[in-house]
Structures are given as C-alpha cells and as structure tokens.
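User: Hi! I'm a student and our assignment asks us to look at how structure tokens line up with a sequence. Could you show me two examples?

Assistant: Happy to help. In each example below, the sequence comes first and the structure tokens follow. Example one:
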Amino acid sequence: MILRRTAGRKVAGSVAALAAASLVLTSCSQAEDAATSATDAASSAVATTTAEVVALTVEDNYGTHTLNAPFERVAVTDNRSFEILSQWGVNIVAAPVPLVPKTLRDKINEDTVEANLGTHKEPDLEALVAADPDIVINGQRFERYQEDMQTLVGKDIPVLDFEPRDGEDLPSELIRQTLALGTIFNHEDDAQALVDDFNKALERAKAAYDPSKTIMAVNTSGGEIGYIAPGKGRFFGPFFDMLGWKPSLEVAGGTNNHEGDDISVEAIAQSNPDWIFIMDRDGAIGAKDGVLHGEALIKDNAALQNVTAVKQGNVVAAPEDTYTNENIITYTEVLNAIADAFESAK
C-alpha cells in the first residue's frame, strides 16, 4: 500500500508537473496571443484613424484651402452658421454666446461651449486660443477680426469665411456657404437637402407674387421704423431682386444700415404699399419695456391705418430671431411664409 501510495504520489507529482508545465505553456501562449491581439488592435486603430482622415479642398472668401477632416473642436463666430451646424450636431467649443440666436440658446450657451468669445464690439480672442479649436468658421459680425484670429490660432488652423460677397447673387452665396459646410463636416446630403428646400421655396414665392402689387420692406428697431432699401437693405433688400418685387417707394442713397434708413411714416403712407414686410431687430436683441415693435409698431400706427397693406392685413414679419440668424434655413422659412401670404390673398 505504501509503495502504491508512493508510486501514486510520484505519478500524481508527474501529472501535476505536466499540468503545471502545460499551464505555463498555455499562459505563455495566451500572453503571446494577447500581445499579438493588442498589436493588431493598435495597428487596426492606427489604420482606422488614418483611413478616417480625409483631405478636402475648399474655397472660401480668402482663397483655396486644403483641409484634413474630420474636425472635432469647432469654433464658430458666424451667425449664418450656428443653426446649420447645430442641426447637424457639430461640436461647437467656442462662440460669441451673446450673439447666438435666442432660438438656439438651449443648445449653444455658456454651459455647452468651452469659450465665450463675447461680442464683436468687445471680443475675447484670447478665449478662442484657449479653446484650442481645429477649425474656425468666421463671418458676418466677426469678419473684421479674420487676420487677428488667424494669427492667434496659428497658420495650421483654418479660419474660413463664407460671408455673402458684395455684388454676388445672394441665393448663390447662401448655397455656396451651405454646401461648403456640408463638405467640411461630412454632411453633404444634409446640405443638399437644405439647398433643395431653399430652391423650392424661392420658386414658390416667385410664382405666387403678383407683379402689379407694390412692396415696402421695413426694419423695426428701438420703437422706430427704418426703410429697407431694395437690393441693398438688410435681409429683405435682396428679396426685391430675388422675387422681382415692385417697390412702393425708392429712396436715393439707400444703405444696408442695421437699423434701416431714416424714413417718416408719412412717406410710407403716401407710397401706399400693397404689402409690408418687416424685419424686427428688437425681436432679436430685445425690445425696450413698453416700446412697440414688429407688426404692432406698423399696425397700431395711426398714420398707417389707411395704407392698403394695413387695411387688407398684408403685413408679414420675418421670424423674431432673423436679425441674428440670417442663414439659408431662415430664408427658406421666410420665402415659404411669403408664398403662403401671397397665395392666400389671391
């Protein structure tokens, strides 16, 4: 029995030794496999990362740029871009928060961005540098700081500007900007959808307009009514060319003043427009307490009560945030609203 036990122990020991050796070999093999897998995974990750980098060629107002997409840290100072990029879920790390359209402040605010760049009157460009963006979409109110921003972020960080250019057709310029943003942020289909919607709304508004009807466009600001010059004035100015509108009044020396040009309500009344279109600046930046603005400023004005547009209810206001949100989506909404109004009046 003892010999058997001893033999048994020797056999058991041998089995244990073999098992231990096998375990060691298995562990080594597993370790090697794990190391190989880790190496393969790392190689795959590098390959994937490399594959995801896409070289793009984009032309903005300053020339042609070669970009390496995707972009993860996007700074935006252009009011025409906020809604588009927000709709696409683009991560915005820096923005002039006080200038963000109020309809977007639940998405773009001091809690969602890392750097508040202030306003165009008192910009905090050092905050832009601290946000470490990999691209900057500049334009509109911040155009004057283009060179300053490029110098601060460095030549390797693109600072792009797609602001509609003077002398160019506005619809084409809005489309140019939208398609460029779609290319940069890999939302080509979404950008094309916005363009298609815009073109449809534009054609619809053109078809609905009766060319015998006269148009007056105004800007309400600080309780005052400003004249929006056909072809030149803020927002509604280009609509005269876009839709072939016949102005009820043409004032020499019209400008694109952000509050509109000076005009008396008597001059508006004498021109007797069939339609009045309003961009309410107060609606976007906040009206003073007790001050009438927008449609109320027109409809409640005693001097305008006998104007055809007021008597027939042909007064149309753009969305309240238009003054700070003049992008292709806003233009599409307004064009459709214009078409609705013209069609219902026929």
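Example two works the same way, sequence first and then tokens:
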Amino acid sequence: MEINYDEKDPISIKEYGEKLIGSTFADVIREAETSYELKQETIGKVNRPGYKGGVGHLIEKFHFGYELNSNQEADFPEAGVELKVTPYEIGKKGGYSAGERLVISMISYEKAVEENLYSSHLYNKLNLSLLIHYLRDRSIPRTAYPIDYVTLFSPPEEDMKIIEQDYEKIISKVKDGKAHELSEGDTMYLGACTKGSNAEKSTVPQKYYAVESKARKRAFCFKQSYMTYVLNKYVLKKVDTYESILKDTQDLKEQSFENLIIDKINAHRGKTDEQLKKELGLNSRSKSFWSALAYRMLGVRSNSAKEFVKANIEVKAIRIEENGSMKESISFPSISFKEFEYQEWEESDFYNDLSSKRYLFVVFKKNGDKYVLKGAQLWNINNEDLEAARDGWLKIQDIVRRGVHLEKKPSKNGKTFTVENNFPEKSDNPVIHIRPHASKRYYELGDGEIIGNDRKCGDELPDGRMMTKQSFWLNNNYILEQLDAELKE
C-alpha cells in the first residue's frame, strides 16, 4: 500500500487511517511494502500464545510507516495527533465495552515533575488521539482481529476539568515521595496503572524519597470505564442517556469533584431513611431503594450518573446495625472457571475491577426501627490489601487448576443435603472470599448426577463438571474496618 498522507494535518491522518476499516491485522501486514518472509514471520510471531507485543505496533510500522519510539511528543508531532490502537469487546448479553485501559505515557520518578498538565508531555499525548478500534475475539488468532472504527477524539471540557484534578492528585504523591502508594483507583478518569510483569521486577527508586524506597513502575492511563464511555458516546455515537451530577464546570473551581459529591451527601446527615424517602420523592422500598436514596441526594433521578459510569464508581449503601456490625459483603461479577484457570493476576478481570474501582460508601446506622444517615466516603483498595487479595485469588486458582473437590453431604436433619467444596473459608483471607453468585444451586457431578434444574445457574469447571456460579466478595468485616471512624459512631 502506498503511504500517502499529510503528517501535519489531523484530518489527512484520520482519512488515511480509515483505509484500515474492514481489514484484519494480517491484511495490514500482507499489504505492506516488505518481503514475503518478513510478513510470514511477523504473522507467526503475533499469533503465538506467549506474544507480548502490542498489535498497535503493526499499524505504526506496516500502515503509517514509522517505527515504534519512546518520544514524549505525540506520534504525529506536527499535527499534534497521538495514535492509539485499542480493542473493544461485545458482551455475552450484548453491549460494547473497551477491552482494556488506554496507556498514555510513563510516569517518571526521576525527572522533575511537570506541575501544569496543559504544558506537560502528557497533554501532548492525550489532547488529540486517533483511536483505531479492533474487535477482540480470543477464540481466533490475533492477526484475524478485524479493524472496525477510526476516530479522532479530544476529551471534552467537562472531562478535562476532572482529568486535571486526577493529574494533580497523581503528581502530588510522586512529589511527596509516595509513589509506592499510587493506585489506579485513587482517581476518576486518568489513572496510574502498573507497568511490568510483576511487582518484584518492575520496582524502581523514587527521586523524591529516601534512597531505599522503591515504587512500582506506573503509567498515566485512561481507565477502562472511561474508554468504554468514549467508545459508546464518541465512536459508536450511541445516545447518551446518563444524568450528570456536575451541572456546571465552574463548580470545580473552588473544590474537587470528589469533595463536591461528599458534600452533597453529607448535607443530609442525621436524617432517617423515612425522612429522606419523603423529601426526595421515593415511593417504594424496592431492591434498589438504598442506592436510589444516594443518587437522589446527588441530584440524579435515575440509578446511574455519567461521571460514575466514566470513573467506575459504584454507589454502595452500608447499613450498620445497632451493635456496630455489618451483615452484607460486596460481590463482584461471577467468574468463568475456564477463563480463570489461565489468567495472570494483573491481567485478570477481578484485578482490573478491584484495582481501578472506587466505591461511594453511603453509611446508615440503625436506631430503633429506622436507619440514620451518618455520611459518605469515597474508598478504593490500597496496595497492601490488594496484595492480600492476590494471595487469596492465587490459592483459589490453584484449587481450580488441580480440580475442585465436590462432595454431596446430608444436612443435619437428614432430609436435605448440601454440596461442599474445598475453596477457602471467608476467615482464611482478610480481604476476599469466594462463594455462590447464583440464587439457585446447580451441579453436574463426576458420576453423572445432576443437582438443580436451571443449568444457567452453573458454570463449567475445567474438567467438564459443573458447579453453581461463583463470585469473589469483599469481606463485610474488612469493609467495616475501612470506614472512617465518625461514620461508625
């Protein structure tokens, strides 16, 4: 293919990129002006199971005609355009989501921190991006992935205000010598994601702290949740029906978005659930009643908010009993045992969700027959507890790999029975446990016996048996420990 575009013109670059639509990565390689041997070698290398390179490199080299580099300027500096080749996926129940976070630029712990986002090298790389989306289907070779969309994207002003606050939070930790405390869940849209195969191999010294202190390598990224919003809003151009908490960007001049939402909730402190129900116009106590109260306090009438969708923030009503206990643990989506068996921790669905998710805890404490609002807190897991969760995850994965032990046992009354497994107990890990996700049980045991009537409530184990769908849960006593003291009084 003849390489013919104006490197100074974003529209020309986009139009040249649009020639990729309908092609696979194999097509891109085959059409390049290079030797047949190199083409075949490249296709073979990319399709190997252990391939770690990005398919984006193929677009850079074989379509746009430039070699991979680590320059701090944009890929097309004269046009101010950064090239990003990124996957999207179609869910089992329909719907489109970003396949991963979008890595933008490494965070330096050695060079002087760039105080102003708008004059930083990071801004050069996020201000205008050429997004090339391909459909990822893990059942076919990588080079067979189709390229479907090519879009020029700049974050809108309302997002840039929050991205700027995210940037300031990240660089403040770096300047304070606390890069080892950075977490992708600290921020809203712009995250600090880990880079490197594991913690031991990817730690480096911090310039701003004691000599012996090291921190994980990290990069600025747009969170996966933010990229899912961008995909649906700006690429697929679906109608945006989400309500916004932020009514005017001027509201962020004097305070952060995070403080704004906490203040909105805390303005109602001391009110009972019945008072809030009347004041906020809720008519029934449905399953979503408690989260609906929180959204109404935030000025949102539906049970979702645009900013929370972008930032992967989940509203969670916490109800504390009069004796100070908390009954409910917090669940994550059910796992697929066959996928879970082969996942690496930092590439797993659970890690991606747990490390980047934030919770808005809206805390109520029981007083007689009512619950009183104590206030709100934004929370995300810290790195130490994330490591504890990793230990629990690995132990469970090892059991799945070796074969889950399922044993049918009669109950104490002798009239019914249970199916026990050898997964760890909740008390075995301070942060997480695993237990059923489905409301009904379903098992297909090794002897051919089937327990339960609804196969949709089960998931296939690697050895072909089936057991009731399982989820990871954050322990209720762990969540209780994370709450600010004043919220538990």
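Here is something you could point out in your write-up. The mean pLDDT is 92.
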